[in-house]
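sorry for the late reply, my laptop died twice this morning and i had to redo everyting from scratch. anyway the thing you sent over, i finally got around to it. pasting the sequence first so we're on the same page, its 112 residues, then the predicted structure underneath. double check i copied it right bc i was rushing
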Amino acid sequence: MRVYSSSVVTLPAGTYKGRFSGEFYFTKLSGMRLRNTTNNTTLALSSRAYANDGSVHANVNGDFYFVLTGTKTIEMQYRVDLTNSTDGLGLDSAGSFSEVNVWASLFIEQVS
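ok and here's the structure:
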């Protein structure tokens, strides 16, 4: 298992499955996608969610299964209708524990 602290991974040729998710706060309509930036193609789209005020957190999720024919760079991306420079991707829930917050996750399994 590899753990990355980036939204970008490089994968060799193979067949992959997995899931991704993200958290949004006060961003109105929000969604994510998994993008093959080597070929400029979308591999998977998440569900969409709407967080319309400061009391609502929105979570989006996506599942995928795809085949790569060569080494490709894969990026987890998001789009929102409203940006917030201080806490738009979620409230700081780890501050009192002096830990790093996790706003998105990506699980990839190579099946062949």
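The chain has one domain: 8-91.
thats about all i looked at so far, will dig more tmrw
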